[in-house]
Amino acid sequence: MASSKKWASIISSIASCVYFLVIILQVPLFRVPCTAGICRTPIEVTSSQLIACELFPLVVVKALLYPGAFANALIKNRPIPSYDSLKLYNFTNVKAADAISELQRLEVLAGSYLSVAGALLGLIKPGRMSLCGMLLIVWGLVREIILRKSTSTIHVYIYPAMSIALFSAFLSITKDVRRIIRSCRLGIIGGLSVNSTLNFLRNLVNWSSRDGESCPPFVLCSDPALNKELLLIERPSFPYVSRKNEGTELDPTLIVENLRSKRIYLENSGSRCIVMPCHISHSWHDQISEGCSVPFLHMGECVAKELKEAKLKPLEAGSPLQIGVLATYATLKAGFYQEKLRNEGFEVVLPDKATMEHTVIPAFEALNRKDTEGAQNLLRIAVQVLLVRAANAVILASDDLRDLLPPDDPLLKKCIDPMNALAWSTIKWVQSAKEGT
């Protein structure tokens, strides 16, 4: 699948060819009085002016006019005129331009020059000349109609084909087309938990709308089959799975390929930034993001930077800042949270074996039994254990743990949700992208 840059180039090339054909084949775009009588195309306006001013020989003017005469003959089923005997336009009757009338239609004249030149140069390197020319013509015609400067206003008219010329002139500008394709659109790769992905989207929409801004457009790519495979990676973390699975590891190669293909799809669909609100999927973030041409936010980096910006103070003078991490065995084993925190200068406090076996894993088991109160109490104990070990804050790096404690629980003030950090980082990226920084 082509990248956004390639798509922009393809669209621009096609639009340039369409615009060239509209101009060179002299599709009627408007009707306006000119030195040759009534002109209906930019080439007619340009040619009549060139003849009246005698700046170029008639051979050059005929070269511009002949493709239109050829096309006109085919459409009307007339004999095709020869180049030498071309009499589609009465060159001998072209009058010298009246200064006052030409000044009144200066925009149409200048726009016609730019339109014709833009059509020819656009085949080599598309630019803004064509669009500027068309806009000048439209402005001149509209002004002529509104102000009724012409003695015979009925002769001034804009044909529907003008919209085709305008649209193709705009799309011929590669940079502008690419900006449209790659507007501040977010690409979101759904993960293990559908609820977690929806919570992330809810926060993204609500928080980005706080200052009156609208939520940035996004493309969500989620796969229920992939969710099941990710769950199998995490399940060995839970004792309620058969002990037969202990010591066996599932091959994540297919999962990584699946996630990478989703990243490539989002990238090629025009996403300017990609996020992945899933803890376990970040175990392979480096492999998934390899070769990515747009920012691919890492949840571990987002939460580490948020803690860095919070300017926490150590519990004891001279001691390092310590951050606790509560998660499943699979997430802790991947080690990406530990790595990103250490990169920002934090020391990491992890639950020991006893804490995992007697509080963290039983909390997951209680949730599996729908025992929410029991799971809450076990989680409180696990958080307290890490805080007692001098952790300044505790990261709840699990979809099951993030919403377990009630909103008024005082322990939540010491807990950090990586999903929230990812949402805030995404909003900041969108704001900076809009500002062009």
Description:
It contains 19 helices and 10 strands. Helices cover 55% and strands 8% of the residues. Helix 1 crosses helix 8 (174-181). It has helices at residues 4-24, 42-53, 58-75, 99-104, 106-122, 129-147, 161-171, 174-181, 194-208, 224-234, 253-268, 285-289, 299-309, 329-334, 336-343, 353-368, 372-388, 399-402, 418-435; strands at 30-34, 37-39, 157-158, 186-189, 218-221, 273-275, 322-326, 347-349, 393-396, 415-416. It has a 4-stranded parallel sheet, with helices on both faces. Mean pLDDT is 82; it is low at 239-248. It has 3 domains: 4-180, no CATH class; 182-302 and 423-435, Rossmann fold; 310-421, Rossmann fold (3-Layer(aba) Sandwich). It starts with a helix and ends with a helix.
The main sheet comes to: 4 strands, parallel
Question: What letter string, H or E per element, gives the SSE order?
Answer: HEEHHHHHEHHEHEHHEHHEHHEHHEHEH
| Low-confidence runs | 239-248
How many domains comprise the coordinates? Answer: 3
Rg value: 33 Å
Total of DSSP H or I helical runs spanning 4+ residues: 19
- In the sheet with the most strands, the strands line up as 8-7-9-10
Distance between the termini: 29 Å
Strand content: 5-15%
Q: How much helicity do the residues have? A: 40-55%
| Tally of strands | 10
SS-derived structural category: alpha/beta
Described by the principal axes of the CA atoms, the overall outline is: elongated
Average pLDDT metric = 82
GO molecular function, one term: amino-acid racemase activity
Organism: Prunus persica (Peach)
Pfam families: Asp_Glu_race
Protein name: Asp/Glu racemase
